[in-house]
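Write out a record, focusing on structure:
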Amino acid sequence: TYGTQTWMDRNLGARRVATAINDVLSYGNHYQWGRPADGHEISVWKGDDQTTGRGFANATALEALATNDTPGHPNFILTNTSPYDWRSGNNNNRWATANQGPCPAGYHVPTDAEWNTADTFGVWNSNTDTYNSALKLPSAGYRTRSLSLLNNQGTNGNYWSSTVSVPDARYLYFNSSAASTYSDNRAYGFSVRCLKN
């Protein structure tokens, strides 16, 4: 419980609650926005190394976009062309209307407003604040949209919301000197922390 909200105690795919800002076992998976849990999101880490990792599934050829909301394969879909979405057509009705997303029954991907509520309650100004909160948000970094590489583990946190910001989507971002919500490309792989309905 965090203020008036009830959250899952760890990121989706994490093996445990974070024990440090850079606890690799608490990073969990990295989802492309609006995409179901189909294997594309699974991240694999090299032992206790805080920064070396890879996606479990392969990546697609650049611009081999999905034509619907369920690609039918586990590959991380690569793009480097506007609007930087893994799906052709830039459909807004993915997590926006069915905001359970990859979360279990009774939970959903938080909206931008719900992330802002948590931020305001916690008075977050950095990744230290987000980690020291009851949510224990680790700096799990992100997966790039054009190469599928894992970046900024141990320093940045990038957590999707279900809120669209055409042609992008909203997310919570934090580093050593900031914590706020922003918009970014839907083809990036960001963390998901589920909120109870």
DSSP finds two helices and eleven strands in the chain. The chain has a mean pLDDT of 92. The CA atoms of residues 29 and 111 lie 19 Å apart. The longest strand covers residues 157-165.
